[in-house]
Each structure stands twice: as structure tokens, then as C-alpha cells.
Amino acid sequence: xxxxxxxxxxxxxxxxxxxxxxxxxxxxxxxxxxxxxxxxxxxxxxxxxxxxxxxxxxxxxxxxxxxxxxxxxxxxxxxxxxxxxxxxxxxxxxxxxxxxxxxxxxxxxxxxxxxxxxxxxxxxxxxxxxxxxxxxxxxxx
Amino acid sequence: xxxxxxxxxxxxxxxxxxxxxxxxxxxxxxxxxxxxxxxxxxxxxxxxxxxxxxxxxxxxxxxxxxxxxxxxxxxxxxxxxxxxxxxxxxxxxxxxxxxxxxxxxxx
Lengths: 141, 107
Prior knowledge:
Number of helices of chain B: 1
Shape of chain A: elongated
Shape of chain B: elongated
CATH architecture of the domain at 20-92 in chain B: Sandwich
Low-confidence stretches of chain B: 1-12
Strand content of chain A: 35-45%
Helix content of chain A: 10-25%
Helix content of chain B: 10-25%
CATH topology of the domain at 20-92 in chain B: Immunoglobulin-like
Strand order of the largest sheet of chain A: 1-7-5-4
Strand content of chain B: 35-45%
Oligomer: heterodimer
């Protein structure tokens, strides 16, 4: 039975096979929206946030923080090596900006950021009032 | 001479596959792989029966990806460099292959 969907199926099939034959991933175009993987953990006195930014230098990255929001932005420009033919391209030039609502207020004056082997590590000390306090337990004899 | 590096064909178990760019000229192939967090001591490159396996480790992530490489790679001259979490692998073509390529071009 001929239905309008048959036309869609054919169009999708044709598109799919063309994508598969292509060396270049079309979803990975230059300057595309890209977002680095981010992980974080709560160490108690501070929050530690790690951002994977391979190929970025310190100058390519911008970190803004206030009490409750952290914003990490960056741009990586890759220039193709001169005189080479591309066989496969998955990386490309990318830019991103990510804002994260912090679960607790942090002391923005004390935030530190370091970049090593393509990983940006941020340490955000919590505001004093939300830092955990250890309560000594006294045993009663 | 077929000079093709084909689709990556395998991933190590529990490992993440890095994104790669692959380039070629008459003299060599160059692979760029994003391996954030990996230290240079952890980088491993193995070539065995036409398969190139690339591995690297960070304290939290294991990176692994394999490629099928054409014969005619000078395996003993493969170079690896790590900069800002990007691994650059240079795979020179063997002298014999290069010579043949030049001949084809001259015709």
C-alpha cells in the first residue's frame, strides 16, 4: 500500500546511506555547539569541579564565578596541518559556555583554577556558614 | 598502494574511545586523539597484524581505540607526543611505499 510515509522512508534511507559513506561526520561540523564533560565532587570544605578540555590552553578558557553560579567558557581553534588530506575528522574547532548552579554558596574570592593535561580543575571553597563542622562526641562515664 | 586508515573497529572494555582526527600526506599519517587527563607515561601504542591499538590513562579514565592501518607503515618509526591532553601519533610510511607513491604521481 502506498502511504505518505513510504516517501519519508525512502528519503531517510537515502540520507542514512549517504552519511555512512561519508568520511566526515556531518554532526561534527566546524564551530558546532559542543559541551565538555564535567564532573564534580563535594570534598566537605569545598566543591571540586573537573572539566575535560583537551587541546585548550589557559588563554582559551574563561572561568567566572559568583556565590551561586559557575560559568566556564572556552574556544579551541584547530588549524588543519598544511599539506595533509583529512581521512577522518571528529574533533574540529569548538566553543562552549556552560553555567552551573552551585548547590551551596561558595567564596568566589578563594576559587582556584588549574589546567593540566587538558583537564581544568576548579576548587571552590564553600562559604563558611555551609562548611561542615565536626562535632566532637564526648562519652559520659 | 592503498593508503587508507579505516574506521576504528574496537574499543577496550570499560574504556572510553577518544575523538580523533586522521590526516595523511605522501610521507605519513597523523592521528590526533583527545585524551584529557592522560599522562605521557601512560600512553601505549601497539601495532600488530595491521591493527594499531592506542591506549592512555588518567587517574579516572582509561582511553582506548583501535585502528586498521595499511601495510607499509614504518612501525619502528612511529612517534607519539602529548600536548594539553591531545595525543599526536605520527605514522611514517615506509620508504618503499613512498617511492611507489612518487612513481605513480610522475606518470
